[in-house]
């Protein structure tokens, strides 16, 4: 069930990062409104909670990853799923990487096509491009882990 833990870990981290980017998008929108009308209020509001939460969660995950790896030299730079022990695992990782790469060839044009609808939803969902962009790593990790699970 290690792959399921990895999947949910990535979902949580990508979700928190997406939430932080939505908050950042809101703050930059307020700054842009001020730049258009400098005589208005000089107050920008933003929610720092998602930024702090992602910092805490990523720090905990990095510590746990560092502590659990035998080869600690590049433990924070190399994900757990790239720690192969034999030739079979290297082959599975290579095939899963190929699958993830191929999934991006499908996901990127679909997400780019979905950006066409941004003017229709801009009033209700101004951070629509951020959400779409966060789908790219989610699709990539999902394709990788599905292939990885099938191979094991």
Describe the protein.
The model has no long low-confidence stretch (mean pLDDT 87). Helix content is 73%, strand content 0%. The protein is flat. It is built from five helices and no strands. The protein has one domain (2-151). With 152 residues, the protein is mostly helical.
What keyword list fits this structure?
mainly alpha, 73% helix, 152 residues
How is the topology of this model organized?
Layout: H1 2-36, H2 49-68, H3 87-114, H4 118-121, H5 128-151
Compact description:
With 152 residues, the protein is mainly α.
Quaternary organization: single chain
Number of helical segments with 4 or more residues: 5
The structure class reads: mainly alpha
H-E order: HHHHH
The portion of residues assigned to helices is over 70%
How many distinct domains?
1
Low-confidence stretches: none
Average pLDDT score = 87
Report the major sheet.
Answer: none
Proportion of strand residues: under 5%
Number of strands: 0
Beginning-to-end CA distance, first to last residue: 11 Å
Using the alpha-carbon principal axes, give the shape: flat
Radius of gyration computed on alpha carbons: 19 Å
